[in-house]
Each structure stands twice: as structure tokens, then as C-alpha cells.
């Protein structure tokens, strides 16, 4: 909005020429998101507490979590607002990729809101049935995949990290592949959201990493030099990623241990879906397995645990997702959280190294 209102004035007032630069708008989208989070956070927490929108804790979980029951949840609404508004203010709204990511972010946010609302209203931890939740996630992701496949200039090729010459064209099979990336990322972040600040930390790191990927993919010269896919217009997603980083930092202020508010599914599903969609658009889908390694590890721990128990009657971990395994081993919650953040940073650096190691 500001881009469209102020940049045209640069012919009369040269100061407005700065709105042309994605880097400038990305920085201020992040700052705007951070300010919104700081301003609205206390108010939202107070309102959620007054409405008794408290977290219901599973009796099967670690006993240390029982004391968290009643902590306000659905704080992901703050994250969503802090992402959407700065993006609308600072991004080029004629860019289709921005709208696609916002669609997934808000669409998955609505799914998460319904899930959280049912949990709070029914006073249990079940919420929306997995079948209904998956149906709507599939529908939104399918829409995004079809739009991308029919958008002029978008390629259905797949890039493999560390191998510059391997770029198979999936054709229309790219649609189910994109759906897998988007839905997988969404649910993996959802599974990771089990400790105070555990999920939002890696989300911030992943968003910051894909901020750089988006900027480079949209820059013809830099993408050519680095031998990565040039996706015209993808650079504008850096602004949205900047807003995501700012919103994440602002939410972490209130979500850090001991948490004053939880993000709930409204936050985790939407953030994961947004990151997955950005990975698809920037053609860095496979790298997401590295950058989002913590999310992958959490999801795989659940799959391995369920498979092992169903077929062999044995549990591999004391409890899944894997962060609960370390809790039951006696690790203090802050130690698990910070160590997972450290691993996320290392994985992000490895992911960025793929830009040169080809």
C-alpha cells in the first residue's frame, strides 16, 4: 500500500525513490511487524485471559506441562496480524506470489482457528478432526499448485542442493509435489509447537533464510551468478519474510519460557504453510528439508514412533514428538529449546551453503 502510494511520488520528491528497493521495504516490514506485536501483545493476552481461552493439557503428556493448563492460547492471531498488515503496507501488491503466500497463511490460519476454538469450547485437546483438517489443507495447497502451474513463466522443475545440473521437470506432477511440501511443512511446525518458544525460534530462522533465498531468486544477475532458478517477482517475498521475522520476534517476547501465551494451531499451521509455499515459489523445496531440519526431525519422530508401536508393539522414544523424549530424560525445558534453536541455526547455515557448493 505504501509502495503504491509513495513510490510514484519519487519524480517530485526524490526521497520516495527509496521505496523502489526491496531491501528497504523488507527492513521496515520487519520493524513494523515487531512494533505491532509489542503494542498488541499485552492487550491480546489480557483479552484471551478474560475470555478464558486457556490451553487444555493432555493427561498423557509430561507432568511438568500440567502447570501450564489455562495459559492463554490462540496467540497465533497476533502473529498473523503482524505478518499480514506490514506485508500489505510495504509489499508490491500487484505481485501474485505475495497474494498466494498470504492466501495460504490466512487460509491455514482459519483452519487452525477453528481447531483451537473447538478445543477451547469443548475443553479437550482433540479439536477439528484430522480428516477435516487435512481436507481443507489439501484444497488450499491444490489451489496454489494449480495457480503456479498455469502462471506464465513459472517452471515445474525441481532443483537439488549441491547438484547444479540436476533439474528434472515434473510437469503436472509438480502440483502434488508442491502440495506435499506445503502441507508437510505446516504439520511439521504444528508438531514442533510443544514447548515455550520451541517452534517460533526455528520459524524465525527459516523465515530469515528464505528471505535471502527469495531475494536472490528474484534477482536475475545474482541468481545467474549463483546458478539457481531465477523466478521473476519472487524477490518481493523477501518483504513478507521480513514481516514474518519481525512478527516471530515480537511473539517470542511473550512466548519465551515461561510462556505468557501459546500460538496454538492458528499460528503453527499458518506459519508452516507460509514457509512451505515460499520454498515452492523460490524453487528451494528440497533445501527446506535442511533448513527446516528441526521440523523434519519432530515429524519423523512421530512417524517412527507410531509405526514401531503399531507393527512391533515397541516405542523407540519415551514419548513423541522427540522434544518430549528429552523432557522425560530429565532435560530442563529451556535447555531443550535453546539447543534446538542452535541446531536450527547450524542447519540454516548448511542450507545457505548450497548456494555456492554446486
Alpha-carbon distance between the two ends:
39 Å
Indicate how many domains the architecture comprises. 1
- The averaged pLDDT comes out at 92
Q: Structural class, from secondary structure content? A: mainly alpha
Low-pLDDT windows of residues? none
Order of helices and strands: HHHHHHHHHHHHHH
Summarize the structure.
By secondary structure, the protein is mostly helical. Helices cover 65% and strands 0% of the residues.
Explain what the structure shows.
65% of the residues lie in helices and 0% in strands. By secondary structure, the protein is an all-alpha fold. The chain has one domain. Helix 6 runs antiparallel to helix 10 and helix 7 packs parallel to helix 10. It is globular. 49% of the residues are buried.
Descriptive terms for the model:
358 residues
SSE layout and pairings?
Blueprint: H1 2-6, H2 22-50, H3 76-90, H4 96-122, H5 130-150, H6 174-192, H7 200-218, H8 220-226, H9 237-255, H10 264-281, H11 287-291, H12 293-312, H13 322-328, H14 333-353
Helix pairs in contact: 2-3, 2-9, 3-4, 3-9, 3-10, 4-5, 4-10, 5-6, 6-10, 6-12, 7-9, 7-10, 7-14
Amino acid at each position: 500500500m505504501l509502495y503504491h502510494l509513495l513510490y510514484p511520488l519519487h519524480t517530485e520528491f526524490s526521497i520516495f525513490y527509496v521505496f523502489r528497493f526491496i531491501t528497504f521495504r523488507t527492513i521496515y516490514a520487519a520493524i513494523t511487524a515487531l512494533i505491532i506485536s509489542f503494542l498488541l501483545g499485552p492487550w491480546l493476552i489480557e483479552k484471551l485471559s478474560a475470555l478464558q481461552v486457556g490451553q487444555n493439557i493432555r493427561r498423557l503428556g509430561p507432568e511438568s506441562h500440567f502447570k501450564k493448563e489455562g495459559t492463554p492460547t490462540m496467540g497465533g492471531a497476533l502473529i498473523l496480524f503482524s505478518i499480514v498488515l506490514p506485508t500489505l503496507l510495504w509489499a508490491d501488491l500487484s505481485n501474485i506470489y505475495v497474494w498466494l503466500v498470504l492466501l495460504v497463511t490466512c487460509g491455514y490460519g482459519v483452519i487452525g482457528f477453528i481447531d483451537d476454538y473447538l478445543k477451547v469450547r469443548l475443553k479437550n485437546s482433540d479439536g477439528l478432526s484430522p480428516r477435516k483438517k487435512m481436507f481443507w489443507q489439501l484444497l488450499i495447497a491444490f489451489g496454489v499448485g494449480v495457480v503456479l502451474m498455469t502462471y506464465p513463466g513459472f517452471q515445474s522443475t525441481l532443483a537439488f542442493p549441491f547438484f547444479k545440473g540436476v533439474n528434472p521437470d515434473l510437469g503436472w506432477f509438480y502440483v502434488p509435489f508442491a502440495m506435499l511440501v506445503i502441507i508437510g511443512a505446516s504439520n511439521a511446525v504444528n508438531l514442533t509447537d510443544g514447548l515455550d518458544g520451541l517452534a517460533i525460534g526455528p520459524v524465525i530462522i527459516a523465515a530469515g533464510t528464505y528471505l535471502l533465498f527469495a531475494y536472490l531468486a528474484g534477482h536475475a544477475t545474482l541468481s545467474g551468478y549463483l546458478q539457481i532458478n531465477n523466478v521473476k517477482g519472487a524477490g518481493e517475498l523477501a518483504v513478507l519474510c521480513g514481516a514474518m521475522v519481525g512478527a516471530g520476534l515480537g511473539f517470542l517476547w511473550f512466548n519465551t519460557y515461561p510462556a505468557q501465551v501459546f500460538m496454538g494451531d492458528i499460528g503453527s499451521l499458518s506459519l508452516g504453510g507460509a514457509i512451505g509455499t515460499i520454498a515452492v515459489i523460490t524453487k528451494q523445496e528440497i533445501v527446506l528439508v535442511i533448513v527446516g531440519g528441526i521440523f523434519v526431525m519432530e515429524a519423523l519422530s512421530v512417524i517412527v514412533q507410531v509405526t514401531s508401536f503399531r507393527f512391533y508393539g515397541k516405542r523407540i522414544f519415551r514419548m513423541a514428538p522427540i522434544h518430549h523424549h528429552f523432557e522425560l530424560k530429565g532435560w530442563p525445558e529451556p535447555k531443550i529449546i535453546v539447543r534446538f534453536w542452535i541446531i536450527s541455526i547450524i542447519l540454516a547455515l548448511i542450507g545457505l551453503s548450497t548456494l555456492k557448493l554446486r
